[in-house]
Amino acid sequence: MMGDQKSAGYRAVIIGCGSIANSHASGYNRTDATALVACADTVDAKAADFAERNGIPNYYADYREMLDVEKPDIVSVCTWHPLHAEMTIAAAARQPKAILCEKPMATNLGEAEAMMIACQRNQVKLAIGFQRRFLGAWTEAKNLIASGAVGKPERISHTRLTGLLNASSHGFDCMRYILGDPKVEWVFGQVERKTDRYERSVRSEDCVAGFFLFEGGVQASFQTDVVPENKWAFVQGTDGLIDFDDGWIRYFNAETAGWKDVEVEEVDAAAAQVGELVEWIEDRCVHRNEAENGLWTMHMMMGAYESARCHEVVRLPMQTRANPLDLMVEAGQLPVQYPGRYDIRSFLLEGEAMNLEETE
Ligand SMILES: NC(=O)c1ccc[n+]([C@@H]2O[C@H](COP(=O)([O-])OP(=O)(O)OC[C@H]3O[C@@H](n4cnc5c(N)ncnc54)[C@H](O)[C@@H]3O)[C@@H](O)[C@H]2O)c1
């Protein structure tokens, strides 16, 4: 239909033509080894416009039809979280080489495990879209810790706004990434939910906070929607501190005489994520966003809810497969004091989809 088509080896498709899909499209378009051949969205005008803007030859309303006709090598799942499991499992059944599903991996552990099983059964590589792992500042934080620049890491803290499954999923993933992806031994959490708050059609808390212990002894604290502060992870070591965000990083130790800024490489995270997917398909590496890491982040988030539900320290990996926030609300443990369902991402909805009750 349009655009100069690359004669690249791996045929990629995108399901869901909304905001994050733009980043996936640019990742495929900027990677020599991939060509974006089709996209799908239930809103026809969105699919058509997305295809036009990104030089994609075909678009569909039915993503299953797209998978059957296009027989892609790589599938991006860019819809809201409640559809991640269904779409990943449907894509896996068609046996592409890899699936790149957006974060959070799913809305509960049962769904996340089913996604892993479907991909293993069909020998499909599954990665979760925590693309910030490719940012120069994040990788520099990981390298500083590994080099001992701040001694032995002892404590790490995360503070973020806009929901546990939304923004804090990146923060939890960040803490594990910069520490070298340790397992998490336990979580102790508390939740407040007085409004009927949702985020992309998934029930959300008003705020949540707690603690983790990582294998190896690093203690973490997290606060989501508690304080108006956004830090993916602030690191305290025996001999110094590391402070960073997406585009900058500084550290502090006995030799730096105050905070020392480190220049960070500017990385196209979307393209880097796709590039590493190609290397993984070709068995030249394991993707840093392999689903095992997305699953750990699910355990951390669901464990925080489960700790609040059961009033106890929850050992990870945990056993409860349902979403404990749903269990608490449905059991009357978190009565809504300010009625009226609302979604903090309702601004993404268009046309008739503005009816929030119909978006699940
Ligand atoms: N990695 C990141 O930094 C990042 C950033 C933003 C969003 N996300 C994640 O990406 C996902 C999508 O978020 P978004 O902000 O792009 O949402 P969005 O609303 O902008 O886009 C979602 C699209 O999916 C389409 N859709 C819905 N049902 C469909 C179906 N059955 N078949 C095909 N298409 C369908 C919608 O019409 C919409 O165009 C979420 O899970 C979110 O958490 C990740």
Keywords:
18 strands; alpha/beta; nine-stranded mixed sheet; Dihydrodipicolinate Reductase, domain 2; six-stranded parallel sheet; 26% strand; binds nicotinamide-adenine-dinucleotide; 360 residues; globular; Rossmann fold; disordered N terminus
Walkthrough of the structure:
- The chain has 360 residues and is α/β, with parallel strands linked by helices.
- It has 2 domains: 10-131 and 271-289, NAD(P)-binding Rossmann-like Domain (Rossmann fold), CATH 3.40.50; 133-267 and 296-343, Dihydrodipicolinate Reductase, domain 2 (2-Layer Sandwich).
- The protein has helices at 19-29, 44-54, 63-70, 84-93, 109-121, 136-147, 163-178, 269-281, 291-310, 324-330; strands spanning 10-15, 34-40, 58-60, 74-77, 98-101, 125-128, 153-160, 184-192, 195-199, 202-203, 207-214, 219-224, 231-237, 240-244, 249-253, 260-262, 314-315, 338-343.
- The strands form 3 sheets. Strands 16-15-14-13-7-12-11-8-17 form a 9-stranded mixed sheet. A 6-stranded parallel sheet has the order 3-2-1-4-5-6, sandwiched between helices.
- Helix 1 links the parallel strand 1 and strand 2 (34-40).
- Helix 1 crosses helix 8 and helix 9 (291-310) packs parallel to helix 10.
- It is globular, with a radius of gyration of 21 Å.
- The two termini are 32 Å apart.
- The model is unreliable at 1-5 (pLDDT under 50).
- Nicotinamide-adenine-dinucleotide binds next to helix 1.
Quick synopsis:
This protein is of the alpha/beta class and 360 residues long. It has 10 helices and 18 strands. Residues 15-21, 40-43, 46, 63, 78-81, 83, 102-103, 129, 131, 200, 348 line the site of nicotinamide-adenine-dinucleotide.
